[in-house]
Write a structure and sequence with these properties.
The protein is α+β, with helices and mostly antiparallel strands and 177 residues long. Helices cover 12% and strands 25% of the residues. Bound molecules: calcium ion. The site of calcium ion has 7 residues, from loops.
Length: 177
Amino acid sequence: MRIKLLGLIALLTTTTGAYAEQVCSPRINSVTPVNRFEISDDGTVRDLRTLLLWQRCPVGYNIDDKGTVEYPEDDTCEPGEQASQMPWVDAFAFVDENWRLPTVKELMSIMEYKCFDPAMNLTVFPEVPGSRFWTSTTYLKIDEVASVDITAGVNVVDRKVQAENYVRLVRDPAATP
Ligand SMILES: [Ca+2]
């Protein structure tokens, strides 16, 4: 047990690099297998369980399918011109009549608990260097918002103005033609 714990500490302390190595447990069943999703060639993905439509990359990144639309395993999120990590208020510049910030419950619904760093299916949602994503879920304390740290797939609390997090937009099924 002690050795396992030390191993975990070593793992946590060595994952400060931009692209850390994702670790997945073969003993835990995947909750976000690829077949739960319908990946489109426009950078969006439909979650067939919740019917929500997600952007595969955060705001500020563009999907690169590497010329193989039918093979999502090699897809990456490439940084574009826009800033990608921003204060909570700035996220609303990317919201329109269709795309919005997810609630904390919605964002937690695409976490993959089989994996750590990040706790996400990287075929469906390609990796980016940071780990915290904004949600639309606010608290009674006026300057605090729920965000999700995808390293372990946990709900955390961030300050609206001081923190700079990623934005992954979501769209309701009814808003999709
Ligand atoms: Ca591809």
